[in-house]
């Protein structure tokens, strides 16, 4: 093992971390908001609203992310209307294409997670709340959402990890996040073992932090369960 | 945008049509996915046995496999096998007296990479399915004088498979989509082939949409097949 | 077939006990559960094993089928000594083949039925005879169907366990044990997991088996069954046989103070 070399590539890859994190955080935040919206549409009573929303979820979950990135990066430029609009200044950039693709992608998965979490709320507890005179927003805010969050959080934590990994595909449309740098180093030096060990280590550390954060939040939210054990 | 007739020609099988290359690329996608998933099943069984072992060392090995592979991007694993594979092959060829640079065929690299990733997820699927087995039913088998092998074949494998099937269905869908990443190491599967078509016709929107539709349909059809097997295997568990 | 069995039973009673244990010990870690048990069950005997919770009844029964390995002692099934060898400080099975063969001779009926859920009732019955005992499939099938009729499940052969009630599952489990043509049947609280109204149908099957001269060891909390059906009572306490004798002797009272206390808890 050549420690100097390892230190060198480690330093080079560190430069990519901010971009990886930025892509993750921005698209997770935007994706979550979008997911809430999509999920509201999916649970609509009207087929005209529900069906397109459901199709959106199915389509983004049923096709590869890389394809979605290509469709946005190469495909959108073909639409003249878009090219002439102010949006083009953004969508010309690979960065925003990646953000858009990642956002749409995660919104579909997250919508599904929200649906599952809300469905997991026991009907009895909702009835109990109704019998106490709760309804509408109060019912959701005080009963449904708190229970749903506890159900959905573990699933969402793996979605976040998937997203940290998914940002690596941005490297294919020229973004120099961790994987982009890794690829360049590997094809320049062919020192496969060192390079992939370091890159793998960085991703594992990021994801370790993610699971740690979620574990702490879950611990905090499930305080009522912890008490019972003592 | 373009006229529908031209579109049909572009996607058709006639001269100047991309129908045939796209169809065969779809075949490559499905083939790579099946082989990768199959390799993943083998690795999954091995991984689950490691993780279920009574001894600490195999458990640690299995745990490392799933943690590492599930914690790093799939594309990184593909690159690893791509660069690592060609390094290894070149080394061997140079020792054998053949100079120059060699790389493994994209399909082989791709299948191995998809298999290794799929195997990590299948390890979890098999492991948790095994843990759901009813100990009493296994004991009943032992009490009837079943040998370890017989017990495995007649009781443990069928029931584990039954419990694992829903998760395996999801992992299959992931494997199918993951094959699209093999385009970056030069395997002419569906995504790469549509990329080529898009480039040479300047119709990316059309061709990538076609690829999306193809992936979606393949996923749907195979998903339905899995569901049918699931229904069949669920029969005993229904009341 | 019944008369065959009874003949065999009569011929063997004097000679070899179906099950015989000497100095059976079993501990889990430092916890000693069985502390030296000497016991014999002869052909045709119905032995009820009683005792409070944790006294080691299940452990004892499971040792006889070698689901638990004894820590010390000798075990003979049909006069054949079960080979065990010492590895470190514990015993292990010396010859797995022998054990697999003998297990079919002491068939176990479990508290939770433990039917295989991926097989129909008929497949459950045929599994061990065909795959362990390697008997001819067609014959086994006929015998299995006959056995199902005996326990009143002839119309449930093609059902899956999940589609049966608890009582039906337990009767099917008894039939599964019988198709192996065992020399003795071991029951571990066969009615404890059942709803009260389903207990009767299982006990009836067991009474029928007892009256046809089957060798049975029954761990039970059904005092009525123990008193009326069994030929002998074994009362376990803290891993030893605290009292044994005919139901008449023991239930008559005065033989063992502890047993009387135990019974009074049930009646009280
Ligand atoms: N696999 C095991 N590991 C550790 N301890 C065990 C094990 N099996 C049984 N024991 C212990 O051995 C003792 C006797 O258990 P056993 O199941 O034989 O009692 P039992 O008489 O059948 O009781 P019950 O009427 O509740 O079924 C108990 O204290 C139990 O905790
Ligand atoms: Mg017990």
CATH-defined fold name of chain C: Rossmann fold
Gyration radius of chain C, in Å? 18 Å
What is the CATH C level class of chain A, in words? Mainly Alpha
The tally of domains of chain A stands at 1
Average of per-residue pLDDT values of chain C = 91
What kind of assembly state do the chains in view correspond to? Answer: heterotrimer
Largest sheet of chain C: 6 strands, mixed
The biggest beta sheet of chain A is recorded as: none
| Average pLDDT reading of chain A | 92
Alpha-carbon distance between the two ends of chain A: 49 Å
What name does CATH use for the topology of chain A? MetI-like fold
**What is the distance, rounded to the nearest whole angstrom, between the alpha carbons of the first and last residues of chain C?**
43 Å
CATH superfamily of chain C: P-loop containing nucleotide triphosphate hydrolases
Describe the global form of chain A. flat
User: Roughly what percent helix of chain C?
Assistant: 25-40%
CATH superfamily of chain A, called what? MetI-like
Describe this protein's structure:
The complex is a heterotrimer of chains A (230), B (239) and C (268). Chain A has twelve helices and no strands. Chain A is an all-alpha fold. Chain A has one domain: MetI-like (MetI-like fold, Orthogonal Bundle), CATH 1.10.3720.10. In chain A, helix 1 crosses helix 11 (192-221) and helix 10 (178-189) runs antiparallel to helix 11. The radius of gyration of chain A is 21 Å and the shape is flat. Chain B has 239 residues and is mainly α. Chain B has a domain at 30-187: MetI-like (MetI-like fold). Chain B is built from nine helices and no strands. The model of chain B has no long low-confidence stretch (mean pLDDT 93). Chain C contains ten helices and twelve strands. The longest helix of chain C has 16 residues, at 196-211. In chain C, the strands form three sheets. Chain C has a six-stranded mixed β-sheet with strand order 8-9-10-3-11-12, sandwiched between helices. Chain C has a four-stranded antiparallel β-sheet with strand order 2-1-4-5, covered by helices on one side. In chain C, helix 4 packs across helix 5 (137-150). The mean pLDDT of chain C is 91. In chain C, a hairpin with a 2-residue loop joins strand 6 (84-87) and strand 7. Chain C has a single domain, classed as Rossmann fold, CATH 3.40.50.300. At the A-B interface, helix 3, helix 4, helix 9, helix 10 and helix 11 of A face helix 3, helix 4, helix 7, helix 8 and helix 9 of B. The complex binds adenosine-5'-triphosphate and magnesium ion (MG). Residues 57-58, 189 of chain C line the site of magnesium ion (MG).
